Every structure is written in structure tokens, then in C-alpha cells.
Amino acid sequence: MFKDIEQQFLRYVKKMMSYNEAIQVMYWDMRTGAPEKGLEQRSEVIGVLSQEVFKMSISEEMAAYIAKLSPSDVQEQLSDVARHTLAECKKGYERNKKIPEEEYREYVVLQSKAENVWEKAREASDFNMFRPYLEKLVAFNKKFIDYWGYDGNPYNTLLDLYEPGMTVEVLDDVFAKLRERIVPLVQAVVSSRHQPDTSFLFHPFPKEKQRAFSLELLRELGYDFSAGRLDETVHPFAIGLNPGDVRITTRYDERDFRTALFGTIHECGHALYEQNISKELIGTPLCTGTSMGIHESQSLFYENFIGRHYCYWKRNYPLLQQYAPEQFANVSLDEFYRAINEAKPSLIRIEADELTYSLHIMIRYEIEKGLFNGTIAVKDLPDIWNDKYEEYLGIRPHCDAVGVLQDVHWSGGSFGYFPSYALGYMYAAQLKQAMLKDLPYFDELLETGELLPIRNWLTEKVHRFGKTKKPLDILHEATGEGLNAGYLIRYLEEKYKAIYQL
Amino acid sequence: MFKDIEQQFLRYVKKMMSYNEAIQVMYWDMRTGAPEKGLEQRSEVIGVLSQEVFKMSISEEMAAYIAKLSPSDVQEQLSDVARHTLAECKKGYERNKKIPEEEYREYVVLQSKAENVWEKAREASDFNMFRPYLEKLVAFNKKFIDYWGYDGNPYNTLLDLYEPGMTVEVLDDVFAKLRERIVPLVQAVVSSRHQPDTSFLFHPFPKEKQRAFSLELLRELGYDFSAGRLDETVHPFAIGLNPGDVRITTRYDERDFRTALFGTIHECGHALYEQNISKELIGTPLCTGTSMGIHESQSLFYENFIGRHYCYWKRNYPLLQQYAPEQFANVSLDEFYRAINEAKPSLIRIEADELTYSLHIMIRYEIEKGLFNGTIAVKDLPDIWNDKYEEYLGIRPHCDAVGVLQDVHWSGGSFGYFPSYALGYMYAAQLKQAMLKDLPYFDELLETGELLPIRNWLTEKVHRFGKTKKPLDILHEATGEGLNAGYLIRYLEEKYKAIYQL
């Protein structure tokens, strides 16, 4: 009897997921060359399907499935997939149902207005233009936290949206440790007399050659082209439509090949995650990464722990030299390696290197936490922002455009998202350390281009589970311990002390 | 009161159309490079959405809208768009509702099996492999005709699926006239001593240059690239996702540039139709071509009445010569014109020229009519097919693969579709004649590349109406008379007598 309900429930969910897949295909299409004049109508189509998915997530039918399948004696008999799917749907149901419909509609309108205003405010470098919208967005999210409730700290509820189970307690601890060691390290790097020469990076490098080189690297990294494709967009992304169709996009800067090179490797890390999720999760909300942070750990693992590793370039630098002989003929591997690992404080997060990146995140984390704990007011953000940049990175933004207005996230109402980026770094470093126990010849694998064991390890420990496990459980099972900032700290200290001869 | 219902009804229909647009985007994506491993799941997604559209078309909600809005006093007060939308939905409702659900499911399964079997049968050139499937497909369609009912001739019901309002009576008449004049004309062409030299057509012509040339022609023809794009597929098509997004695909044969050239111009004709449908029809089932035949008239108008016209090449041949100087340096415009208008009997419909094409269609028409009137049995098809080819075209297929098994249509259960192709020729010739009254300098427009008046005329008379008018009404209003095969006959006789010096 309940087996019938289980089947009906899974069919119902599969329908929602089918709509989502259709939406994602249209999203990809819009970003990779859909004709401009059709976009308005296409947005409406996406709107119709999205609304349908939302309605289904809070329908009476959904409520009935949850009611019938939730009792623990029933749950015990459900398949693993059904049980985890139920948990996800329940979470979504409760979240979506608790916000009064009218209020949510207002919020959606506000979001889209705020994004437009933010764009203009950034162009004008005028925080005050954006301020009233940001205040409303924060106020809405405070109300949502009230509706949803919270454990320990109101901000936890927002963190949980992107990093299920993550808390202020954990983040305060790891960020304090990071800050303590990274801030002085950055200062030492800045004042080192051994700065890398980067001048040779900025030679013209034709797009077609960059693309061909990227394709070779992607193949070696294990990206499956019969389950994906590489396209070009202004803002690169990876998108998992289903595990058999995970697409990457990249951007080519003909004056700086690093944009496409590291961008592609980064998105490849995301894509390998989605390509290797267990097939049995297709058609459920579990067929995706478990969290933003774990997703980012995969992209950063590939971008930094492989893509900026000396041994990786011991193998691939000769190939790069073939693609751009004039540019690199007189540059040694060592010079190249130091150049692509240059670290220095900068104002813009998305241009930051791996050493300084977490500091950018910490600043945003502290501000968000303050906003939702009532210790920081929106009106004071520009000053607080600038002070923190001076304190952590030793540089002060000269205007809002390169300061508090630089990121799109808040304008879309995304609070609690930023910490995932820093978590991605920490997760990646911790996974790398655990991987070394199973693959002690890691460096040699990079040097010989045998990258399959690495991907297999990540698939075994991370990818295949999709969203059936929480991020901290995945981390714990893979590494034997909870989140530990020490691995990232040690990695950065060793690497940058060597490069800058500290 | 009924205004509310009208609005609700239009919203309901818009939702169905949104699902359809999503399906079409995925369909386009599947054919232009979606990764292979994702296709199975993508097909399921398409299946889920299609089923939903089908369900909505026969739902109780739909039945209620039809019941409430159909009374003539209500209809009178509806907007034009709502009234025509209602008529379309009613037609769909009645069609879909009358077939028992279980029977329809069986039929869908049969269709997909039959297509596979047909492919194998064609490879093996063995009609008997396909025969039992074709028998079942015909039997199902006969039952459908019983469910749906018919006027005059059972086959009319199938014709109406593709060409609303078209009847055996009309077709018998026009096809008899065509046959009477085209068959002897083809014989005369075959035995003419003035055969064009076509040897220079088959030089290597690099794909990239073909594409660049195609793009130039498309722009001149008035194809709007901000509402479309050109991609590459094995089987070329045009697809209207909405009037702001109408895409074309083409195929490049590097040993025969005609494939891409005329294929692109042909699809452009389809695309111009869809790009210029009135915007107020977006979100309704009226936002598409009125029938297969009228759609084909637009593609054929561009392909033949423009693309194979002497004056068109007077302008564009020098450009072609620039793209392929070696191939055409020593070929005069007259030689080129005669070569691209070569006509000769052949076995394969899709490779046929404009002179012989209608004969291929007539054969299929006569066979289909016989199948549904009970005068022809499936088992006799190969012989009947071959006899008719001998009679009309003077050549006899030596095996089923190039005979009765050549077309995909029947394997998908599409009976009644073929006549639309021939109707497209007749409509196009008749429209051309009417156009000449308004645009007497037609030839000069081609010669100067001022093609906008031509497109505007077609938009005014055909495109903008979408599916709000029936094909024969469009024809009548545009040309002042009903279907008249005389225009196509006159066009072909004049053109081919000149080319072959008869």
C-alpha cells in the first residue's frame, strides 16, 4: 500500500524535476546564443514552468505525500532514494509554505527591481541609490527567518539555504583561524623582494588556439564529452541538466589566456561532480551537488590543487608552449609556475588569487552576520566595508563600485551564500590531505597525466552521493574529521613561502 | 463575467503553449549538439511535458471552457484571438478525446516500434519486414477515422490534419490537371537534345565559405538574425519557437554546394513565415503556419521562385563566383542557371527537382487514398508503387529501399501529409501570379536585391495571420480564386520549355 504511495510520490517529484530540466535547458540556451528578440517570450515560458514547480512543491498533493510517508515506521520501509527525496521535499514544502503568498510575490518583484537598481548604482558608484532596496531585502529576509525559525543564530537559517547544517559557530571558529594566519602571510608576500615576473602572461593568444588547448586539458582531466560540451559565454558556468548532459562555458580573453584556462578547469571541476552523480538519483532533487560549498570544493580542487600545481605544468607546459610558442619560448617552467601563482591583495573578489580569496569572503561573512544579528545597519555598510578591506588586505576601496557594490549576490537577496566560497577552499584542502593517504603518488599522477585515480577518488567520496548526504557528513566520512581550517592554512603557507621565498 | 472566463481560458492555453515552446527548445537542442549520453533522460523530460499538454487538451477544465465559451452569443463577444483559439482547442479536444486512452497508448508504442523497424527494413530493402507494422498503422488510422467521422471521403479526415479543409475532390481535380501536362513535359525534357552541363557543380567547396555565402543570402532575403540563428544538422529544418526566435539549420556537402544553398533558402522561406506572424498570437495555438501546404508554399516560393530565378542569379552569381572563384571562373551565368534548374526523373522524392516533384507526390496520394478507401491493400504496395513510377516518371525502382520504403512518413503514422508538398508548389505559383499584380517589377526586385517588398507582400497576405485563417481562405483572399493548378503548370511549361529548348 505505502509502496504505491512511494511510487506515486516519486512520479510526482519526477515531473517537477522534468520541468526543472526543461527550465535549465532554456537557461543554457539563453546564455549561449538564443536570439535576442525571442528572450522576452522565453522568460515568460520559464516563468510559467517555474511557477508550476513552485505550486507543485506546496500543493495539497505534496502535503498528502509528506503526511503519509513521514511517520517513522513508514520511512523505515522506503527506499533510500525515496527517503532522502522526501526529506528534501519536506524542507522545500515547509520553507515555501510558511511565507505568505502575497509577501513572496512582493519579494520577487523587489528582487528584480533591486538587481536593476544595483546595476545602475554600481555604474554610478553610488551606494545610496541601492541602499533603500538593500534595506528592504534585508528586512524581507529577517521576516523569512522569523517564519522559518532558527537554531542558535538567525543567520544560521540563511547559511542553511546554501550549506545545509552550516552554522555561525563553525564559521566563526574556522574564519578566526584563517584570519590569524592568512593576514600576516599576505603581508609577508606583499613585502617579499621575490615578486614573480608576470609580464609574459599578457601576449595575444588567439581564441581558437585557446579553445583547442582547453579541449585537450578537459579530455585529460576526465571530462566526458559524450556527456557534455564546451561553449562560450560572457560569464562562465557549468550546468548539470542531467548526469549525461553537463555543459561548460568559458570566456576567452585574447590578451590574458588565464581567464579561459583556469576558468575552464574550474568549471570542469563542477562538471565532473555533476557527471558522476549516481544515475539512480536522476529525476529526484538529489541529483545535484549537496551544497554550494562542496560544489565549490570540486571546482577549486581542479583549478588550484591540480591546475596551479607545479607537477601539472611539468606535464602540460610543453603543450602550452606548442600552442603559443612565441609567448613562452623564453619562459622557463619555474617562471611560468610562479607567474600563474602570483598573489597580491586586490579590491575585487572575483579577480582574487587563492591566497587572498578567503579574506574577501570573511569580510562579507562578518557583514552579513552583523546585518542579521542587528549589530550592523545597512546605512553604515560602505564605511564598514572599506575599514575591513584596510584591516584584512591592507588596501582601501576608493569608491563603492569597487567596494560594497561589487557583488551581484545581495541585489538578488542572496544572503548566506558567500561563506560557501571559502568553505570550498577549506573542503578542497582537507579532501586533498585525505586523498594523499590513498593516493600518495598524487604529484606523479599529475606529472604523468594519469588523472583518473583522482577523479575516481572524488567520485567515490563525494560525487556519487549527490544530495543524499549533508556537506559536513561527506567531509567527515571522506576525511575522518569535521571542518578543519588547518589544511588550507598549511597548504597556503607551504606554497606561498616557497614561491615568495619567505 | 464571460470576459473573466475568456481571460482564464487564454491563460490556460498560454500555459500549454509555454510547455510546447519548452519542448521545441529541447527538440532543437537535441538536433544541434546535445550530448549523446543525456538524450535518454531528455526524451523522458519531453515525454513528461508532452503528456501534460495532451492531458490539458482534454481536461475537464478545457471541456468547461469550451462549453462556456462556445454558445454563439458568447462567441460573438470574444476577441478574434480568443475565438480562433477556442476553435483550435475544440478541434484538438474532440480529436484527442474520441480515441480511447488505452488505444492511443498502444498506437504511440506502435509508432515508435514501426519507425525502428522501417529503418531496418529500408537498410535491408525488404518491404515484408515493415509490412505488418504498416498494416497495423493503417488499421489504427482507419479506426481513428471512424472515431472522428468524415465528410465525403474517409481520407478527407486525414488530409484535414495537415491541410484543414482540403478534400479528395479538390486534390483529384488538381492532380489530374497536373498529371495531364507534367507527364508529357517531363518526357519532352528527357528526350531534349539540350541537356544542361552540370559537371562544374561538383567541385570541392569548403564548408566555411558555404556558410559565409549562405549568411549573406539570408540577410538579403530578409531573415532577421536578431530573431534567429543558423546551425548545422544532418536533416535541415526551420523551427519557430516564437516569432522572435525562429531558427534555421542546414547541411553542408563539400562536394555539392547546392545542398546547403537551396536548403538554406528553402528553410529561410519557412522561417520568414514564422518570424512575421502577428505578435498578438503569441501564447496561442494560432502562432504557427496555417497548414503544411501553406508553410511549404513559403519555402518553395523562396527556394524556386526566387532562388532558382534567372534574375536572382544575375545579382548573386558574381558573389558566388567570389566565394568559389576556381569553380565558377569559366562558367557563364546562363550555364549556371541551366545547371541549377536541371530536371530529370529520379527515384527519390527528396532529391527531385521542381518539375518532377509533384509526380512523386501524386503517386503517394493515390496510394494513400486507395489504402483508406479500401481499394489498395498494404501487401500490394511495392508493385503498385513501382508500376506508378514507371507510368508517371518512366523509371522503375529496382528495390524497395529506393521505392516504397524511402519515406519516413508512414512509419510514424503520418497519412495525409504528402499532398501538402504538392499543394505548396501550387499555392506558391498561384501566389506568385497574384503578387505580380501588385509588384509587376518582380524580376527587377530580384535583380537589385530589393527583396523587402516581396516579403512584405507575403507577410501582408499570408504570414501575419498565423493559423487564424484556413489555407484555402488565405489563398482565396490573396489571389481572388480557389486552388488553381494552372499557374504551376504554366510556370513549369514556360520555364522548362525555355531551358530545354522544346
TrEMBL record, chains A, B:
Residues annotated as the enzyme's active site: E267 (proton donor/acceptor)
Annotated catalysed reactions: Release of a C-terminal amino acid with broad specificity, except for -Pro
The keyword Hydrolase appears for this protein: yes
Cofactor note: Binds 1 zinc ion per subunit.
CDD domains named in the record: M32_Taq
CC cofactor: Zn(2+)
Positions that bind Zn(2+): H266, H270, E296
InterPro entries, per the entry: Peptidase_M32_Taq (IPR001333)
Any matching Pfam family: Peptidase_M32
Gene3D superfamilies per UniProt: 1.10.1370.30
Keywords, alphabetical: Carboxypeptidase, Hydrolase, Metal-binding, Metalloprotease, Protease, Zinc
Swiss-Prot/TrEMBL GO biological process terms: proteolysis
The EC number(s) this enzyme carries: 3.4.17.19
Coiled coil: none
GO MF entries: metallocarboxypeptidase activity; zinc ion binding
Protein's job: Broad specificity carboxypetidase that releases amino acids sequentially from the C-terminus, including neutral, aromatic, polar and basic residues.
Record-stated family: Belongs to the peptidase M32 family.
Protein name, per record: Metal-dependent carboxypeptidase
The organism of origin for this protein: Anoxybacteroides tepidamans
